[in-house]
Amino acid sequence: MSDSNLLNKSAIELKSLIQNKKISSIELTKLALEKIEETNHKTNAFLTITHDLAINSAKLVDEKIAKGSPLGLLGGVPTSIKDMEPVKGYRTTKGSLFLENSISEIDQLGVERIKNEDGVILGKTNVPEFGASGGTENKLGDDCRNPWNLDHTPGGSSGGTAAAIVSGVHPFAQGSDGGGSIRIPSSFSGIYGIKGTQGRVPRRHASRMSWHPVNYSCMGPMSWYVKDSALLLQAMSGPHPEAEPGTIATPAPDFLKNIDAGIKGKKIAWSSNLNCRSVDPEVIKVNKQAMDIFEKHGAIVEDLEFNIDLNEYEELDSILSIALNYANNKSYYEQDPFKLMPHVRNTIERGKLITSEQYIQALTKLYELRDYIASLFINYDFIATPTSAFTANKCDEKHIVENGKLKVVKMTREDKFIENDMDYSSWNFACKQFTALFNWSGNPGASIPSGFTKYNMPVGLQIVGAKENEVGVLQASRVFELEKPWQNKRPII
Fold first, then answer.
1. CATH class, 3-306+379-390+428-483 region
2. Which of 24, 25, 57, 157 is an active site residue?
3. Is the per-residue pLDDT at 2 higher than 80?
4. Mean pLDDT, to the nearest integer, of 432-451?
5. Which residue among the candidates 9, 35, 64, 82 is catalytic per the annotation?
């Protein structure tokens, strides 16, 4: 078997090969590290390679096998950590020059759990500064690039994770999602990604403001295969005695146990545009065809009448996101504002001007939205939409919403890294107009690779379930995967 074919196997297959001594964890880890060396200068997927950690972890797995000791859930399979999460003994840059040499003294809880379950961490994957972008660019180096077309972005903010998976480095890895940051790069990069219910995975040690009532970011898996995401989500999920407020207190269900149960009789509410979004016609076409698969397998698909004007919620998103960014990052601005990316600097400056009245009004509207989304799940099991209104843009372009319509804006390097007059709220919201509302509502949601455009760029379909129904989202995703497996088509870089 060739090295590339081996690295293209699922994590569950690789785990079995390691357990049955068909290959050692150290052999597999060395192959993965070689793959990083081969591809990273093209994709910039990794900001840091944790070589010694990876080798030592793999050796420990092989020692366990030699002794007949049981392996953890992840079984010696290589993976990576998004560079927003602390990994003890290694730098955590969060994509910022301010943290370029910041060495973490602790593991974030999700990282700790991945280690404890015998995941072999190869490195820290690329992120935009402080995770605040639907693309992955920062001042630490060249843009992170999409393996399907290196002129394009893999999306963000978990763009490095997506690029690493699609490059064939490893089958699955950890991402995080505060407005679409797992689902958007999964859509742009043609892989699977799921964020759990808000509070499913504790965010302990992730940031100073990681508690769930005001931070909508969830850790979650990204992968080629649905079952691999279920496995990694299992490893990270569950309560913890020191977890932040809002963490789900009950144990996580077994995400793999009934994953092939199907969706016969389930009701899916489908909307191509949530009644007010401007969407690329090719994205709509591909996803409408995708919905036929669910009907073929016994689901009842109905058009959703979405009775909230999401344009009103663009302001809500702006206020809450900017306020959080200001609270988290104003100290860096006070040190040297021009060391920051322009869009981060811009949001901090705007965050300073937000009043308590604006913030409370935004929270009130947020709870109205949550109530409305919850009401939809009285009659439906799932909501389906495009993951993104468009496919991966070029690295020198941004999409904005102008007068309710999508518009592409060219970006020079000076525009991106020094100064420009772009409306960042419009740019950011354009990326996450289908995804962010399910962060605000707290529902689990996944992006399924649903097809390709005529330009051979991936399209994603978003499936959202009721709160704490990750199992259902995984089951629906698995139905689609079995009918239309996407893993057979991979880019060559």
1. alpha beta
2. 157
3. no
4. 95
5. 82
